[in-house]
Specification:
Elements: H1 2-19, E1 26-28, E2 34-36, E3 65-69, H2 77-88, E4 99-103, E5 106-110, E6 114-116, E7 121-124, E8 130-134, E9 141-146, E10 152-153, E11 159-160, E12 165-166, E13 172-174, E14 186-191, H3 195-200, E15 223-233, E16 236-239, E17 247-248, E18 255-260, E19 265-277, E20 290-295, E21 297-308, E22 313-317, E23 322-327, E24 330-332, E25 346-348, E26 354-356, E27 359-361, E28 367-369, E29 374-385, E30 390-393, E31 398-408, E32 411-414, E33 428-429, E34 432-434, E35 437-443, E36 453-455, E37 458-461, E38 473-475, H4 487-494, H5 499-502
Parallel strand pairs: 3-4, 4-7, 5-8, 6-9, 7-19, 8-19, 9-20, 19-21, 20-22, 21-23, 21-24, 22-25, 23-26, 24-27, 25-28, 26-29, 27-29, 28-30, 29-31, 30-32, 31-33, 31-34, 32-35, 34-36, 35-37, 36-38
Antiparallel strand pairs: 1-2, 10-18, 11-18, 12-17, 13-16, 14-15, 14-18, 15-16
């Protein structure tokens, strides 16, 4: 009997080993570190590890409470706002924080928007026992965290990129003259929008429909990727996050410039809170819209929150949000019409942001990016149920997003959306769908300037909305045993991330 059990166990182990497989495009090499297979132009799947709070190189801290608030029987907006305003005037400590405001357990009625406009502030509850209710009417964010100002180029700092082609995944390139730059400098890697690119992408040829279709204007597609210099060798500069859209001479090349962003705030967090919105009916449009919105923020977080009955999102990150971690958050039972512009459970329009271990139910676009969203960005190890639309880039050219171990009973799509909306067109490029589980997926490659990868997807493949578009790179559809099971995890560990401390499941 023992011999039979041993034989069966050995057979099972052998079968398990045979079932494991690795991607041809990125896989562990002989030394255990990842190796990347370039295409004919040198493009590779990029490194997505440099996202989230401080690029995952710092653990989100537990900030000391400096002020506490208790609920009243009436509207609590003013007392919470007063506490935030008082803490905003406190000095910033050496650790970068003013302190945390603790909303003690109970129910808080909020008639408007709680606004955090200074850095170094954490708004914290006592978990599910601290509930904030968006009362009354009005589409709004219940909590709005935002700095001020805009990114501005420093005059005279522009340098041309001299490489004729800088591939996706590259972390270095040549410029005309690096003598005025140094390690640690913040730069923008700029890729111009040109009419030739728009024409080759066929985004000036979108089929017009009666409700109005807007062709893509070239100058609206100037792309500004924020990066930091890690090393300089002669006129070659090295950057902290990879190029996620190739710099091509035929489309105007690229350049770098130094910048300022006066007014952007840092070190802000929202955590351990439950949010609800009042509503009149299941299709009510005049009530709380976002539970939490961030913009003009760098290095912040939202964690351990739940949003119920909102019309748009649990967490909405604006286009000038950078290095935000959204962790262990839930979006449940949205209330709105089920149509465009609603139920984007976790929406990201910013750069280098991370959504991890989140859950959505009864949404539409649950893990989603908007127009001209500049990566890298990551949605990792999250789930969506009772979906009413698809996960993925929603419209107008998001670049450099990883969807890793996403599970949905709906679709993940990366496609030419054509004249949907007012002319969404190509939704995304250089997107990586890794080990995801879906009902079905339409993943296409744009005509130029990008590839999309679908590796280890479990679910049906279908053509998508528009016929005749180039197919994406598909590998191992419905094949079990992909190794590594998570690209993001192994890339992060290779970057020195203390994985077990950050992402205990």
């Amino acid at each position: 009997m023992h011999r039979i059990i041993s034989v069966l166990l050995l057979s099972f182990i052998c079968m398990s080993l045979r079932a494991q497989w690795t991607s041809a495009f990125v896989h562990p090499g002989k030394d255990g570190r990842l190796e990347y297979k370039p295409d004919e132009k040198g493009n590779i799947i990029p490194d997505f590890s440099g996202v989230g709070y401080y690029h995952q190189q710092r653990q989100i801290p537990l900030v000391k409470v400096v002020k506490s608030v208790t609920p009243s029987a009436g509207d609590d907006l003013a007392v919470i706002q007063q506490a935030i305003d008082e803490v905003s005037k406190m000095p910033v400590a050496a650790n970068g924080f003013r302190g945390a405001i603790l909303l003690k357990k109970g129910t808080y009625k909020i008639s408007g928007t709680i606004k955090v406009g200074a850095g170094g502030i954490v708004l914290r509850g006592e978990g599910d026992e601290t509930k904030l209710i968006a009362t009354g009417k009005g589409q709004r964010s219940l909590i709005s965290v935002s700095g001020s100002g805009n990114l501005k180029e420093l005059p005279g700092t522009g340098k041309r990129i001299t490489d004729r082609y800088v591939p996706v995944g590259a972390k270095s390139f040549m410029i005309t003259d690096a003598k005025d730059l140094k390690q640690g400098d913040r730069i923008v890697v700029f890729r111009p929008g040109t009419q030739k690119w728009i024409t080759d992408l066929k985004m000036d040829q979108i089929e017009v429909r009666d409700s109005g279709t807007r062709q893509w204007p070239a100058k609206e597609y100037d792309l500004h990727f924020e990066r930091q210099i890690t090393k300089i060798q002669g006129n070659r500069i090295f950057i902290d996050n990879p190029v996620v859209m190739a710099m091509e001479d035929q489309y105007g090349g690229g350049e770098v410039y130094q910048y300022s962003f006066n007014g952007r705030i840092t070190e802000v967090g929202v955590e351990d809170l439950s949010f609800e919105s009042e509503y009149a009916s299941d299709v009510d449009e005049d009530h709380g819209w976002n539970a939490v919105s961030f913009n003009k923020v760098e290095n912040g977080w939202v964690r351990n929150v739940q949003a119920t009955f909102f019309g748009y999102s649990c967490v909405n990150l604006g286009s000038q949000s950078k290095n935000i971690t959204v962790q262990h958050c839930r979006s449940i039972d949205a209330k709105s019409q089920i149509t465009g512009g609603r139920r984007y459970s976790f929406n990201n329009d910013g750069q280098q942001n991370l959504f991890v271990d989140c859950y959505a139910s009864d949404g539409r676009h649950d893990y989603v990016t908007g127009a001209k969203v500049l990566g890298p960005n990551v949605f990792f190890r999250s789930k969506a149920e009772k979906t009413h639309a698809d996960i993925g880039p929603h419209h107008r050219w998001a670049v450099g997003t990883l969807y890793d171990n996403i599970e949905t009973d709906g679709e993940i799509n990366v496609q030419d959306r054509g004249n949907w909306g007012t002319g969404h067109g190509w939704a995304g490029a250089n997107q990586v769908i890794w080990n995801c589980t879906v009902s079905k997926a339409a993943i296409q490659d744009p005509w130029v300037s990008g590839k999309n990868y679908v590796i280890g997807l479990k679910g049906e493949k279908y053509e998508g909305r528009l016929k005749g578009r180039p197919d994406a790179v598909w590998e191992g559809q419905n094949k079990q045993g992909l190794q590594p099971s998570s690209l993001f995890e192994i890339q992060s560990k290779e970057a020195g991330v203390k994985w077990d401390e950050l992402y205990k499941n």
